[in-house]
Amino acid sequence: MISDHPVHGVDPVEDLASRVRPLCGTAVDALQVAAVLESDGMTDRIARDVYGYSDVFVLASEVHRRVPPAVEVRSAARPRTRWQTARELSHGLLYALPSAAYPAVLGLLGVPALVAGMVFATATGWVWGMGLSSVAYRMLGKGRPDASVLVLRWGVALGVVVAGAGAALLVRVEHLPAGVIALVVAQIGFQLSVGVLVMRRLEVVVFATMLPTVVLGVLYIVRGRPSTLDAEVVSVGIVSVGLTVVAAYVTMRRPSGRVTTDLPPAVAREVLSSLPVALYASLSAAYLLFIDVRFLEAPTELAISAAPLVLAMGAVEWRSRRFQETGVKLLRQIRYPWQFRSPIWAAFARGVAVSLLIPGMFAAALLIGLAEHDLLTQRGVQVTTAHVLLAGAYFTGFVLINHGRLPWVLGVLGMVFAGLVAAVATLSQRLAPYGEVPIFLASNAVLLALLVVVLGTSVSTVRLYRW
Length: 467
Known about the structure:
Elements: H1 12-24, H2 30-39, H3 44-49, H4 56-66, H5 82-89, H6 91-96, H7 102-109, H8 111-141, H9 145-174, H10 179-199, H11 203-222, H12 230-251, H13 263-273, H14 275-292, H15 300-303, H16 307-333, H17 341-372, H18 378-402, H19 406-427, H20 436-455
């Protein structure tokens, strides 16, 4: 509609205003008019060549002036509560709670078995959990809570079965102890159940179920990791995970009413639509674990270098949501479209800064602790800094995904990952010891820079901010 030339003899802007009046009568300001115009195909070139205005924003200002409001403007959305912010900030910590029992698991299984089990469980849970939540959220968004519940219920169970079968194969091929299967099943069950409880906004339940494991795990460390308590700590951890799974399934009670017969094809369509999300999760997990698995048996400062990133992931998620909300708020506050670009870039800069600052504070505390125990090295500082930069890249990636730019994120991440693999294969020996560290640091800096460049093509497009 927009790209059509105006009727001869009629003011082109007036003709445009009359055509978009049904859509723009409730617009709060010219920015929302610009969102409608852009979503219907308007470009800066059309605005200039057909309507005589320098860009879409300037044209939208004139259209908004000519379209009288049809109804009273609705009030601003209710501000976020502190509780909601606290919940989001806790998400990174939630997934780290089982680590309180890892030292005891190490005592029972040994380093090779623990490393193999955790790498397999982390990668599988990352991919399966992200794909499962994507399908469930899609069904909710289409007004199908019945389908969302069934997807979660069967998805969690199937994920545990698939992970258990994969762990059994891993045990057989690598000649690992059978306890690795239990480790993988428990870790996957916990990760997927936490995803369900997060969807239900019941993060506090996870903290409650895992509290005994955390307390006992801390006491176990304080007492010097006595081998006589290995089994007790692991047993309490299994009980805590079991309670978390039960709590998740309690929230997945079947909704009232009959489930319609179109459920299987509807779910199948959403599964196919979620494959790019699963691919993104796979690439993200592979990118991070490709480096981090090399440090699991390395000195302490390298082995725990990912901790600041893990603890800060909730903050990264929070900032990505806040950025989108800031865009919506700007649409309500700014009168003229040309005023949108600078504030939205400033909001993005603040988001990146906070996404780097929070893991940076965790990293500083970690490095200070290592220094006090004479464990701090140059490589430790570098690899910890690399994980902090990765938090900024994740934030930028989340913003791009929210803007519908997932294919670009996949392309950039895949390209940088390929470069990382090639650089490690050819340069790590020359940069030894642990030559992967400076390569990983440089790779994360490049990843962040490229994602910012991609974001620059869309960050000021107003239709990407819901109103």
